[in-house]
Amino acid sequence: MELTIDQLAQRVAMTARNIREWQTLGLIPPPERRGRVGVYSSEHVALIERVKQLRTQGLSLDIIRKLIERSSDSEDEVRNLATQVLSPFAASLPANMPRAELAERLGEAAEEALARLGLIADVDDDTVAVRDLAMLTEIEQMVAAGMTLDRLVDTLLEVDRHQHEIADLVLQMYVNDVWNPFVESGFATPGWADIAENATRTRPLAMTLLSRMLQSALDDVAAKIMVAQSDRSRESLDTDAPGQASSA
User: Fold this and answer.
1) Residue 111: burial class (beta carbons within 10 Å; 0-12, 13-18, 19+)
2) What confidence category does residue 247 fall into, taking pLDDT thresholds of 50, 70 and 90?
3) Alpha-carbon gap, residue 180 to 196, rounded angstroms
4) Which domains are seen in the chain, by residue range?
């Protein structure tokens, strides 16, 4: 197979400019020169597809370049790493739902409120897509317990903002203490397996630790709130009821 850069770009669904950038970065070798024309081969096609596939796994071009310089065994290790590190922390249960059912479960105003939360999206005039059925059920149960849907959604939006900040703190800690030292070591081949195993082991531990800390925080805040409400109740009982004469 012999291709010009324009033919190669069309073959791999990239621009010629991006292909040249990848050459500059050392991701793919330069073409064979035929006078003033560069000729690319099937090996270039295969290598570009390999880089594109690794990119879909969340790896940076710099890491991919280092990976290409090593053996295929390293690639197997990094694929395992990508699977462990990039797999979702929580499994969602998406599904489509008739709008009428959603209204019956949470009221006519539910669509607007849940859309603000990002929990539902339009499918057609009669159907909505629910991102996570379990979350919808939990919201429904909290509303049934007496909480208003609008206030609950506003609260969850604020909680979500804080949770993203917490997630960033935790993952940056992992990057600083685990990933960066591995990068600085020059991506030693055995390290890929160690990082993947570390990610597998620490993910559930991090979830459990954060959940335990949240439970502890809820206990602390609940105690303070109950003390405050108890004081208010006592003050109310000490106040004369309406229409009751004050004692002399």
Assistant:
1) middle
2) very low
3) 14
4) 5-69 (1.10.1660.10), 95-234 (no CATH)
